[in-house]
Amino acid sequence: MQTGVVKFFNESKGFGFIVDDADGRDIFVHITGLNGATIREKDRVEFDVVEGKKGLNAVKVRKVD
Questions:
Q1: 11-20, pLDDT tens digit by residue?
Q2: What is the pLDDT of residues 11-65, one digit of tens each?
Q3: Rounded to 5 degrees, what angle do the CA atoms 59, 3, 17 make?
Q4: φ/ψ of residue 50, rounded to 5
Q5: Residues 6+ apart with CB under 8 A from 4
């Protein structure tokens, strides 16, 4: 799993971005990739990355304490 920090997440629209710790890239995250978790800006998270229709997507996202 990769780690990063939530840069932005719009709960009403159901999407946002995570900054990957490894290379600083912005990774798109959709509410369907959260597995029921709730994330907010500046939360530390772990996630897997998959190739989506428009680029990389974070999936299996969960908060890290």
A1: 999 999 999 9
A2: 999 999 999 999 999 999 999 999 888 999 999 999 999 999 989 999 999 999 7
A3: 55
A4: -130, 155
A5: 18, 19, 20, 21, 27, 44, 45, 47, 58
Reduced to 3 states (helix: H, G, I; strand: E, B; else coil), residue 27 is strand
Instruction: Name the residue among 45, 42, 43, 44 with its Cα closest to residue 60.
Output: 45
Q: Are strands 15-20 and 2-10 parallel, antiparallel or unpaired?
A: antiparallel
Strands 26-30 and 55-63: parallel
CB atoms within 10 A of CB 49: 19
CA separation for the pair 24, 10 (Å, rounded): 20
Start-to-end C-alpha separation, the chain:
15
